Amino acid sequence: MSSTPSRVFVARLVGLPIFDPQGDQVGKVRDLVVSLWSGATQPRVLGLVAEVFGRRRIFVPMTRITHFDSGQVYTTGLLNMRRFEQRPTEALVMGELLDRTVGIRGTEVRGTIYDVAMEQARNRDWVISRVAVVEPGRGFRRRGQTHVVEWTEIEDHSTRHADQAATQLLAKINEMRPADAANLIHDLPKNRRTAVVAALDDERLADVLEELPEEDQVEILGDLDSERAADVLEEMSPDDAADLIADLPPETAAELLELMEPEDAEDVKRLLSYADQTAGAMMAIEPVILSPDATIADALARVRNPDLTTSLAALVYVCRAPLEPPTGRLLGVAHIQRLLREPPSTLVAGALDADLDPLRPEMGIDEVAAHLARYNLVAAPVVDPDGRLLGAVTVDDLLDHMLPENWREANRPGGEHG
């Protein structure tokens, strides 16, 4: 491991790509597994939790790691693809050690762990050698004094405290994509997940909830007070909020709809009015809608919105007023790929795909899938009998409804490791 630094700080590893000897990426680092056997002066690092294709998490022993270099991790390429399952004698650094309240021996200093460092011992095992601890801030100081000390200088480094905070873990979660953050939150112990959920702002929690299995969504929402649960639902996309509310007990769903802002609640109620597994039930009601006098420059500016999914940004919908669903008559759709080839000052209406048949809200999921496949589309408009745009079905929403209900769970970590 000639190119590996002598000391590696663990929090900096999370999210790094993992490569095989041929230079192909095989996964991402999600956490480190350490042994907390009480007889050891320094916990031994057993391996990495890696996320591979299909959001599957596997265990990569340290013996399979060749080196860490320039923000990348390299392996021998020989990986066991069985899903990871944590054992009772093991701890996850990100999930359980960060934010642990500890003391420093021989001092009155107490603080929280915000990072740990690992090094190779003489026997070539990797061990946790250093701990970075931050004291609570005092007065107007945002952050207290920091200390980097030997693991053996730390007191009270057991892994299970009911009152463990989530400050450092939260900082890492806020840097992740929602799907990656959802994976991490899904695997946290109950008390850690509760602390993280309480600390996330409503918008970020909404993003993460949309990526979690239905069972997790219902459990997390049920742990929130009703006012906050309604606020989080307002931050979710209406179609995802409708799917979640449909999984709640009827009296809970009615209470939350009553607490939501009337406009947001009305959008959700409209989606709930359609039969399950139909175009109306799965459509997004916030596509990019433009008037006939909009220019291509206007369209391109709208699809640059980072909050739009890739599939929603692939088409713009030109309609008569009003421009909020249900709109005036749909005149046609314009493909962004086509618009990129046209002068920005020209009208979008001149580049419409007016021959594309729209979907009807009552169309079943198989009909919708066939429609998207027939026309090679990633999204398609949904209109009422009068030709007014109601929303758009995207391929990602279609897949969410076509895959088994537990598809997220089936591709998450569980299983064994050697």
TrEMBL record:
Boundaries of every CBS domain copy: 352-409
- CDD domains for this protein: CBS_pair_Mg_transporter
PROSITE patterns per UniProt: CBS
InterPro entries cross-referenced by the UniProt entry? CBS_dom (IPR000644), CBS_dom_sf (IPR046342), Mg_transptr_MgtE_intracell_dom (IPR006668), MgtE_N_sf (IPR038076), MgtE_transporter (IPR006669), PRC-brl_dom (IPR027275), PRC_barrel-like_sf (IPR011033), SH3_actinomycetes (IPR058838)
Identify the keywords attached in UniProt to this record, alphabetized.
Answer: CBS domain
Pfam family, any one: PRC
| Matches recorded under SMART domains | MgtE_N (SM00924)
- Please give the PANTHER family that the UniProt record associates with this protein: MAGNESIUM TRANSPORTER MGTE (PTHR43773)
Can you name this protein?
CBS domain-containing protein
* Protein species of origin: Nocardioides dubius
Native organism taxonomy: Bacteria, Bacillati, Actinomycetota, Actinomycetes, Propionibacteriales
